[in-house]
Design a protein that fits this description.
Rossmann fold; 220 residues; methyltransferase; alpha/beta; globular; 9 strands; transferase; Calmodulin-lysine N-methyltransferase; SAM-dependent_MTases_sf
Length: 220
């Protein structure tokens, strides 16, 4: 037994239903070797990766409709990987990443559960350079600005891994740190826009806003 319990959830994104292994609830916790603790993941935070959050579902819906146009895409804080699974199903060049020690296993399981090839995954700390990851045309994330230091850490990831012409898309339920993140991306040459996301059928919690940042490389 792994020390935690799971369940299978069905989530409709567009015209397709995705089957997802998630943690049974927010009370699940198992860190027998201290891997999560060494990465700074507290017992209160440990189960957060293993849920389908409204903002994550909203991001997956956005990914179901965007123009892929050959873009290389990075998902930050992928959790169980719903948005990356949507992109994989559409044939996108996508890399999923997370810091949680179980995210890789959950993503691989969910890929197989949906009869998809395994999504390319990289374990990534936001505060540590990962040069081998390369650069991307589009960086996506959902509900990642829930602690004070996350805005600066996430902006650092964008600085290291966004191409000269790039987009960043975040779904955010209004945690309060998006202003700082926007200012830091403005310093990197990104312009910002946002719009309110529609409510998700069957979910009481709000999806929040889609924060969209765009940078176009100047032509010499």
């Amino acid at each position: 037994m792994p020390g935690y319990s799971t369940r299978i959830s069905n989530v409709r994104i567009g015209d397709h239903v995705y089957r997802l292994r998630t943690l049974s609830d927010l009370q699940q916790y198992a860190d027998p070797d201290g891997d999560g603790a060494r990465l700074g993941i507290s017992s209160a935070q440990w189960s957060l990766f293993g849920q389908v959050w409204p903002s994550g579902q909203a991001l997956a819906t956005v990914m179901d409709g965007i123009d892929l146009d050959g873009r290389r895409i990075l998902e930050i804080g992928c959790g169980i990987g719903l948005s990356s699974l949507v992109l994989q199903r559409r044939g996108a060049d996508v890399v999923a990443s997370d810091i949680h020690p179980l995210a890789d296993a959950f993503l691989a399981y969910n890929s197989a559960l949906n009869a998809l090839d395994a999504v390319h995954y990289r374990h990534m700390r936001w505060d540590a350079p990962l040069a081998s990851l390369g650069t991307f045309d589009l960086i996506i994330a959902s509900d990642v600005l829930y602690e004070r230091g996350h805005a600066a850490s996430l902006a650092g990831v964008v600085e290291r891994h966004a191409r000269p012409s790039a987009q960043v898309m975040l779904t955010d339920p209004g945690r309060g740190h998006s202003g700082t993140f926007g200012r830091l991306l403005a310093d990197q040459g990104f312009s910002a826009s946002e719009h309110r996301l529609p409510a998700i059928e069957g979910r009481d919690a709000v999806s929040g806003r889609l924060l969209h940042y765009l940078r176009t490389a100047s032509v010499a």
